[in-house]
Design brief:
By secondary structure, this protein is of the alpha/beta class. The protein has a domain of 89 residues: 3-Layer(aba) Sandwich (Rossmann fold). 29% of the residues lie in helices and 23% in strands. Helix 3 links the parallel strand 5 and strand 6. It is globular. The structure holds S-adenosyl-L-homocysteine (SAH) and thymidine-5'-phosphate.
């Protein structure tokens, strides 16, 4: 029998669910590349010691984050607004002094850092995906085209021991070696420095059975309990956790060097909620497994009925999340004709694994689809507003949720 080990402690941990063979979630591809497409085994594990949900196997980071990374933060207006508010909140709360230094990891096209371009703030972004890093540079952002790691410290000498805040969003869960991440952050931060990041929240994923949060890039799905346990191993302490509505439910974590022996009351309360709701224990993970299997059955029933009635179905939003749904549920172009999307790098290509054509969203209204599977369900408001005529024409939005 195969043994599974925790990515942080190295100890033996339990397998929760196997979603089967998966391609690179953001690996939208051309027909000529179908034959050499890469697949790996998407198995989810749970460490009871760290309350940490994690992947077993995953592709090497370079296979996912390279010059063809097709995700641009600025593709969503609501995310642009979110990052503006995130930046203003941080400035007000933590950056009151005259000269500040901040770093963002996974700075992508510079959407977040763009809010810090004032003369009092020195900023630096670490962004390994060259296409998005280059775009950030064009916009005037100091973006280093590298993974945030021990080896990239030499590129950030001015920031060693002097950084006020290291920010991240939807990136810490992408880093396989969290130990190295925390040690590198420790070298850069000043005595009072903070690590502030927001990531998809395990509690929200369990509540919605949004198993599509699980794909190659998301090596971990965190909870407050897990984050506190991980950082505690390195003498850091969580001092606040603030829920966010982004990406279907995220959590913003604020971490600093351990100053007190105990956690504050707010954090203690969250631990209690996570304990009550079984977000911190194996039981919650096993419930989730059952719910995923049920969700798959229900979705396939629903799609089969729609097809039997002779209706046409398209997809909307060629998200990385959709790769898990389509491959786990074995849904191909025989069921979903095409997926509409705004991203130029995806349009004209095919979805990973199941090879559904990706089409420019501008054509969405040109041909009528009775049902549109909203894969970008986390952008529901923005998309339904943009496509308000679809409902008027009798179209129906569906999701797996
Ligand atoms: N922060 C942005 C982008 C999230 S996508 C947002 O929330 O919209 C994740 C980004 O992190 C990608 O651009 C990817 O290239 C980058 N990334 C992945 N691993 C990284 C690492 N180890 N260090 C820095 N950036 C990383
Ligand atoms: P995300 O869920 O990882 O943020 O990816 C969102 C995808 O949805 C991305 O490919 C862009 C696409 N999209 C649209 O097609 N239309 C929209 O209005 C929005 C907000 C996103």
């Amino acid at each position: 029998m195969e043994k599974y080990n925790c990515k942080i402690t190295g100890k033996k941990i339990k397998k929760i669910i196997n979603f089967g063979k998966m391609p690179i979630a953001n690996g939208f591809l051309k027909k000529k590349d179908f034959k050499k497409e890469f697949f790996f085994d998407l198995t989810v594990l749970f460490s009871e010691e760290l309350s940490l949900l994690q992947l077993n196997d995953h592709p090497k980071p370079r296979m996912m984050f390279n010059s063809k990374y097709p995700f641009y933060t600025s593709s969503s207006e609501s995310m642009k607004l979110h990052f503006k508010e995130y930046a203003n909140w941080a400035k007000k709360k933590f950056l009151k002094k005259n000269k500040s230094k901040i770093i963002e990891i996974g700075s992508n096209d510079g959407t977040f850092l763009n809010n810090f371009r004032t003369k009092d703030i020195e900023h630096l972004g670490f962004e390994p995906s060259k296409n998005v890093s280059d775009l950030a540079r064009k916009r005037g952002i100091n973006s280093i085209h590298e993974f945030f790691s021990r080896d990239s410290l030499s590129k950030a000498e001015r920031f060693i021991g002097t950084t006020d805040i290291i920010f991240g969003a939807n990136v810490v869960c992408h880093i396989p070696n969290l130990i190295e991440f925390i040690k590198t952050a420790d070298k850069l931060l000043n005595d009072n420095g903070k690590i502030i990041f927001e990531e998809p929240y395990l509690g929200s994923m369990y509540k919605k059975t949004s198993y599509d949060q699980i794909y190659d890039e998301h090596i971990f799905i965190f909870s407050v309990t897990a984050i506190s346990k991980i950082f505690n191993l390195f003498d850091f302490q969580i001092i606040d956790a603030i829920p966010q509505i982004t990406h279907g439910g995220s959590m913003r974590y604020i971490i600093e060097r351990k100053k007190k022996r105990n956690y504050n009351n707010k954090i203690k309360k969250i631990f209690e909620i996570e304990r009550r709701e079984k977000i911190n224990s194996l039981e919650g993970a096993l419930n989730f497994k059952k719910n995923c299997e049920l969700s798959k059955e229900k979705l396939l029933d629903k799609l089969t009925k729609i097809k039997k009635q002779g209706h046409k179905i398209c997809g909307y939003g060629a998200t990385s999340k959709s790769t898990t749904i389509l491959n786990y549920c074995n849904i191909g172009p025989d069921i979903i004709d095409c997926i509409f999307d705004t991203t130029p790098d995806k349009i004209g290509k095919f979805s990973p694994g199941k090879h559904i054509p990706i089409v420019d969203y501008k054509n969405f209204t040109k041909q009528f689809y009775d049902y549109a599977f909203l894969f970008a369900w986390n952008h529901k408001k923005e998309i339904e507003k943009k496509e308000k005529n679809y409902l008027k024409k009798g179209g129906k939005w569906i999701t797996h949720l």
